[in-house]
Amino acid sequence: MIGHDGVASSQTGTGGALTDTVAARTGTALTVANLEVVYNDVVLVLRGVSLAVPTGQIVALLGANGAGKTTLLRAVTGLLDVHRGRVTKGSVTLDGKDVTKVEASKIVRSGLAQVMEGRRIFAELTVDENLRTGAFTRRDKAGINDAYDRAMDLFPALQSRRKDTAGYLSGGEQQMLAIGRALMADPKILLLDEPSLGLAPKVVEQIRDIVVAVNEQGTSVLLVEQNATMALSISHEGYVLEHGRVVKHGPGKALLDDKDIREFYLGMGEAGRRSFRDVKTYRRKKSWGS
Ligand code: ATP
Question: Which residues does a 6 A CB cutoff place in the pocket of ligand 1?
Answer without folding.
Answer: 39-40, 43, 45, 63, 65-71, 83-85
